[in-house]
From TrEMBL:
GO CC aspect terms: mitochondrion
Subcellular compartments: Mitochondrion
Designated name of the protein: persulfide dioxygenase
Family: Belongs to the metallo-beta-lactamase superfamily. Glyoxalase II family.
Keywords, sorted A to Z: Acetylation, Dioxygenase, Iron, Metal-binding, Mitochondrion, Oxidoreductase, Transit peptide
GO terms of biological process kind: glutathione metabolic process; hydrogen sulfide metabolic process
Transmembrane residue ranges: none
InterPro entries: Metallo-B-lactamas, Mito_Persulfide_Diox, POD-like_MBL-fold, RibonucZ/Hydroxyglut_hydro
UniProt-listed Enzyme Commission number(s): 1.13.11.18
Catalytic reaction annotation: S-sulfanylglutathione + O2 + H2O = sulfite + glutathione + 2 H(+)
UniProt-listed Gene3D superfamilies: Ribonuclease Z/Hydroxyacylglutathione hydrolase-like (3.60.15.10)
Amino acid sequence: MISVGGRLFVGVCVRVILLAPCCGLRIGFSLLLSCPRAGGGSCGLSMIVLGSHLILRPVSFNVRCSLPPSSLQIRKLSIMPGGSGTSHPSLLFRQLFEKESSTYTYLLADLSDPDKPAVLVDPVDRTVERDLNLIKELGLKLLYAINTHVHADHVTGTGLLKTKLPGVQSLISKASGAKADHYVEHGDKIQFGSLYLEVRATPGHTAGCVTYVSGEGPDQISPRLAFTGDALLIRGCGRTDFQGGDPAQLYNSVHSQIFSLPEETFLYPAHDYKGQTVTTVGEEKLYNPRLTKDLEGFKTIMSNLNLAYPKMIDIALPSNMKCGIQDESNGSTGSSL
Ligand SMILES: [Fe+2]
């Protein structure tokens, strides 16, 4: 039996969802009560906080339950585009889309820090104005414009961002060979406020691909988020026939650096062409039609894709090697973080 706001609920073989309208803090909440079986088995209780404004604060919620404390699981989830959730009271997260190249850009910020420091992953030149407006409206301080790799299908927005928002620094992997203010390598941490992204080298789609994974630990985002670029797409992966691509290397990168993360880790790719927004390690380990094969099967698939020559590659690559339109003086003196 559970008491919520003075109302009693008996939780046997029932699933109850309570939705409350947004309050003054623009936070609604729901209670999901799930007791799969009466008289035995496990009974679980999950509390889901829906942030209509994506600005979450702890919600005081009075829950009494006749079940033993060990049988309860209480989780706070911030709702993100795509319907997935993660728990961190000070995280602001936005998944943004550029329709011409079907590219996702990700904005993350730590709202607990007075400066609201932010990072932007894989910005696109065509949508820089949109991103800048959002950053301004939310009062964020953009620290880094980050690329997962040298893109071949769109021009990165990092150079443009730097010209319009002085102080922003571009960042890409050292192995990419591209110019930027800072170069990262496997194991580096990109700090924004009290949160950070860990750099994991995941070459194979290109030689310089990296995956950015949110930090590990009780004060970090949980479940973790991984921004996989084109190394891993939802139920797919990036092609391996350009830019130093190598199927065996990609296979090893995904299995050793991404599939080794906890199964509940949310995976956010650089693109999706079917309207999907997010997946998890567990899902891809079960359903990715390429990466669930053995290495030889994967190599066979990748060598028989018969894809067309990338239509933007001759424009995008030379530009992206200089972080978009970034001038030589900004990009030629890159340093480690
Ligand atoms: Fe790519």
